[in-house]
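Quick start: what a row looks like.
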Amino acid sequence: MSKKYNIRLICPLTDSYNYYHGNYGDFCKTRGLSKEAFWTDLNVRSDFKDYISQWLHHINPYTGKAIKDSPELCMIELGNELGNIRPYNGSKTIPTKEWISDISAYIKSIDNNHLVLSGTDEKLGECGEFEISTLDCYSNHFYCKDNMRLKSQSDCAKQVNKPYIISEFNPHFDKNWFINIESNTNIKGTIFWNMHPHELGYSRGLPVEHNDGYTLHYPENRVKLLIISNHFRRMQGLPEITEL
């Protein structure tokens, strides 16, 4: 589908939360260890590397290419929101610099076709990420307007000559949010969270709800989607549109 619609994918290797698909703590469970062992236990790390290797070497039956050779893949993210401390979900620690260096270098040893994206989100900069040569891009998520954090982190990325993106943002932000982003040349891209489909297509079916307060649907949220679409177009130097 990404090839058909000319879309490039950012794929996280794991997640901090136990929502639909498990999280990095599952690698620890199989060893009888607590979740925080993920960063330090070498047996758990070996299991994670084996998983990475199997995924990168997996042959897509529709294209005949291994994922590591897929042009539809843009970035490999080390994990979704790995730096977020959420004790209620068992996330009490953040990645170590050594873990980030080792895992990103391991990915590069197999796959030099794709960018490796840092996944520490809220703690970006506290794990020595800007000193790690095998990271290609940095990102953060914004559900409240923290312009100081945004500027500081994008400036750090600029200093090491690497791109910075906002890989999730609140779609209900007002126009000032977009003006601030577009005036910052260190920010190279943005992605909003989130857009959900309809059960039987948008012309015949109920919207699929995510129930997190950030879900948009087309055409129900056409006005907000037009604002975001024109933000994306301005980021690309394209003229604005008047309707979707």
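That is the whole record. Helices lie at 25-29, 42-57, 97-110, 147-159, 175-182, 222-235. Residues 151 and 184 are 8 Å apart (CA to CA).
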